[in-house]
Amino acid sequence: MTVESNEARDEWQRIESLVNHWLEERRRLLYLLCAVRGIRGLTFDGVPVHYRVQQFCQVLMDYISAGHFEVYRELISKARAFNSENAEQVGRILQLLEDSTDEALTFNEDFASPESCDAQLDSLALRLSNLLEKLEERFALEDQLIVSIHQRGLSPGMRVH
Q: What is the CATH superfamily name and number for domain 3-158?
């Protein structure tokens, strides 16, 4: 293997690791979302609801931020390196992601503090349901983004699994 192909492989392994870490964060987000959606009453397993919701909000913001400020940047950079068609597709996907980003930011603003969470407990189930719909759309778009760039950019012998 040449130095160039080793460097390219190393670069893709770095990106693969970044994406895998981010997808693990997505799994954690979904786990917490399910835990929060199952809450009834003011406490869950003796833990105040607002504590569980705050945990979820923190992971939600971490996930959204990692996507925007790390993962998307890497994938956009690779899209530009491969061809403008990928870059155009990435641009369309990023625009579509804004809707779910706005929903996540609004949810976080409304439920991140214990006081605001407790004051809005009656609307929590509906708000979580709306957020879940947006997140489902987001995950599908993010998966398209990953596949369209990350996998397309690897030669068959370089694919990392």
A: Regulator of RNA polymerase sigma(70) subunit, domain 4 (1.20.120.1370)
